[in-house]
Amino acid sequence: METAGPRTRAAARLGAHATREEQRKRRPVRRWQRRRIGEEQEEAVFREVVSFTRDPLPARYYDKDTTKPISFYLPSLEELLAWTPDAEDSFNVALEPLKCRQPPLSSQRPRTLLCHDMMGGYLDDNHHLVTIPPVGWTNAAHRHGVCVLGTFIAEWKEGGQLCEAFLAGDERSYQAVADQLVLIAQFFRFDGWLINIESSLSLAAVGNVPPFLRYLSTQLCRQVPGGLVLWYDSVVSSGQVKWQNELNEQNRIFFDSCDGFFTNYNWQEEHLDRMVAQAGERRADVYVGVDVFARGNVVGGQFDTHKSLELIRKHGFSAALFAPGWVYECLEKRDFFQNQDKFWGLLGRYLPPHSICSLPFVTSFCLGMGTRRVCYGQEEAVGPWYHPSAQEIQPLFAEQRPEGDGQGWVKTHCCLADAWNGGSSLLLRGVIPPEVGHVAVRLFSLHVPVPPKIFLSMVYKLEGPSDVGVALELTTGDAGSCHVGGISTLSAETSSRHSPRPLRVPPTKLARWVGHCGQQLSGGWVQRCYEVNLQGCVLQDLWVSFSRPPGSREQEAFVCRLGELQVVDANSLLRPLPRVQAVSVSRVRWQRAAPEEEEEQRPARLRLSCALHWSYPLSHVRCFRIHCCRATGSPAEGPPGPEKPALLGLAFVNQYRVVDLAVAAAGPGTDGRVEFLVEPVPREGFLVPKAEWGRAALLYSGPHT
Predict the structure, then answer these.
(1) I want to staple 136 with a disulfide (CB 3.0 to 4.6 A). Which of 184, 185, 212, 388 is the partner?
(2) Cα 590 from chain centroid (whole Å)
(3) Which cellular compartments is it found in (predicted)?
(4) Cα–Cα distance between 593 and 553 in angstroms, integer?
């Protein structure tokens, strides 16, 4: 059997991206030049002769029909051991760093693991021996401070043969597999592995499972900070597949060899009672399985899942929710959001939140999907879209009562009907009863040592005629040493809630960020900006408060949409942004338009697919927006045509795959022209002038026969 070399050799392979072959793949098309088109702008110009016989793209990385990048997996042991990092894999690399959280995952507070399973597996991302988490899922989870694990699954007779091949031999065999799993997690930037072996093993093979788990855990921890290895409750120490539904003497050796244990689902309370002594001080490392479908002899599933969580938390264990897609798969699709709210609302008391602990904090509440795409109140595209990497930080799931004895309330709902930026907004509905002056809802938990000055921004709009007041409030901790300047304090408790002072006259250098503060924006949105001066404080919570109009004594109902919230270190807005540089065009493929398209459109149409690459420090941006302008004519080196830039999509790395872009065929003696523009979207959320975007133009002629 082929074996991997030492860790040093594996690490060397990780860095060996710029091989001659990979440089050939990335080399821009044909000839190119860089030309200046203004005082501060440069544009790379690439020339291409249209050809319909270009070499196909590697099938492992791209869909053979559309050339879209596809999710990555390894179906066999041979492919796992032979895998090495390749530049073509880069579309599947998660570039969103794992955000810090409080308390950290390493604390002994019970945790919650979600194990996704959709319609018996996945639709596009099917289970295989080694499944790499889809990059969009990893980016979205990391943005929320949540770890993501890949899966190593061996089942049935074939899985048993595979495991015998690397576990029944000497240590070099299982270390080779472990080294590859570590290398894959390191390269694709996810956080560890769930090991699930549901095949009987020989005594020799099962005897090597504990050292395999120990070696994998140790190496992963060295290469992936905070990496985790979990073991699923299936094989016991004799090598037989016997689901125990608990941690006990028959499977404890595997628990002792890795970071956590995921139990099977058919447990009762007596199983939990026995596990308390077995787990000892590691109760948080036992993830008690809950099948949301409620198959078998279970305590609770479906809308009774909370009954299982109540018992799990009572005993101090972590929980592993399996197949929460039940809400979508088995219930009415049109009621999905309402059913989601119901399902998670029942679990809310058993799911303690972790706190955000870094700035800037910016969210537009986008779910990473929508029925249209909006940019700062302006509709850009109509039609359904789905991009998990575009999901922004989501609020706490909560229903808040007012301060006092009244019966007011505020409820939050995600909403696709309107958006300020992205595809959705946060809908808040509530009632202010006559007995109280205001109601408030806590949307985010934070644990951020606050710099001396911060700016806050809120974009919102009230539905219908309403004079209800809307305000942003914050809670600070360490009130004994916390000095708050220029803010009226609402309470004198250890945790104090404050109403920030509106920012009325923005400093000149902050004009981009606060250019619309206090103004009515497009679509009826309003932006409010605030300035807060603090010293020695920790920012704990963000609230939105709703107050009755002056003089009103009646019950006040309201509906409000939140489009965006921001908390920004003032100093970060004074630093200049870098420019997008070195935009290149490569991996070009041309296709003729379908006959029906040719009949409907004149001049003749082509379909262009290509890869864009550029250089930009990713720590400065939320994402990149990719645009194009299409034109034909001469002179070839002239300015782009009058077409307004059209949004193609979003990128979360320094590359983007353009797929089946319709362009006009170049006429005799003329060049066709497509200009690509790369717009950085800063983490602070303001618009970057077009002069600071990156750009490259593709000039094409032909096709030649």
Answers:
(1) 388
(2) 32
(3) Cytoplasm, Cytosol
(4) 66
Specify whether the CB–CB gap between 441 and 458 falls below 8 A: no
Q: Rounded to two decimals, what is the model's pTM?
A: 0.86
Structure tokens at 460: 């919102």
Measured in whole angstroms, how far is the alpha carbon of residue 100 from the centre of its chain?
14
Quote the CA–CA distance of 661 and 677 in Å, as a whole number.
Answer: 14
- C-alpha to C-alpha distance for 471 and 499, rounded to whole angstroms: 8
| DSSP 8-state class, residue 421 | S
Distance in angstroms (rounded) separating the CA atoms of residues 327 and 332: 8
- What lies within 8 Å, CB to CB, of 309 at 6+ separation is 290, 319, 347, 350, 351
**Conformation bin of residue 30: beta by default, left when phi > 0, alpha when psi is -120 to 50:** left
Q: How many CA atoms lie within 13 A of 665 on its CB side?
A: 20
Report pLDDT for 671.
85
- Cα angle 501, 506, 509 (rounded to 5 degrees) comes to 140
**Residue 664 carries which side chain, given as an amino acid letter?**
A
Q: Could you report the per-residue pLDDT of 662-679, keeping only the tens digit for each?
A: 998 887 878 889 999 999
**Sign of the alpha-carbon torsion through 666, 594, 53, 47:** positive
Q: Please give the pLDDT value at position 10.
A: 35
Distance of CA 273 to the CA centre of its chain: 37
Nearest to 188 by CA among 228, 214, 219, 224: 224
Q: Which DSSP symbol is given to 75?
A: -
CB 421 within 8 A of CB 516: no
Q: Counting every residue, how long is the chain?
A: 705
Q: Is the separation of the CB atoms in 389 and 96 below 8 Å?
A: yes
Q: What is the pLDDT of residue 34?
A: 53
DSSP 8-state symbol, 350: G
Question: How many angstroms separate the first and last alpha carbons of the chain?
Answer: 50
Cα gap 321→313, rounded to integer Å: 13
Between CA 291 and CA 265 the distance in angstroms is 6
Which among 69, 194, 63, 204 is positioned nearest to 612, based on CA atoms?
A: 69
Say which DSSP state 414 is in. E
- The tokens for 653 are 């790395």
Q: How far apart, in whole angstroms, are the C-alpha atoms of residue 510 and residue 516?
A: 11
C-alpha 232/C-alpha 223 separation (Å) is 23
* Token digits of residue 219: 């190496």
CB 212 within 8 A of CB 167: yes
Tell me the torsion sign for CA atoms 162, 163, 166, 168. Answer: negative
pLDDT at 481: 61
Yes or no: say if 629 and 674 are a contact pair by the CB < 8 Å rule: yes
Q: What is the rounded distance in angstroms from the CA atom of residue 658 to the CA atom of residue 626?
A: 9
Asked if 392 and 144 touch (Cβ cutoff 8 Å), the reply is no
Amino acid identity of residue 80, one-letter, is: L
Which strands, in side-by-side order, build the sheet including 228-232?
A: 73-74, 130-131, 150-155, 192-198, 228-232, 260-262, 286-291, 318-322, 112-115
Q: And the tokens for 445?
A: 């938990």
Among 74-88, 201-215, 528-542, 640-654, the minimum mean pLDDT is found in: 640-654
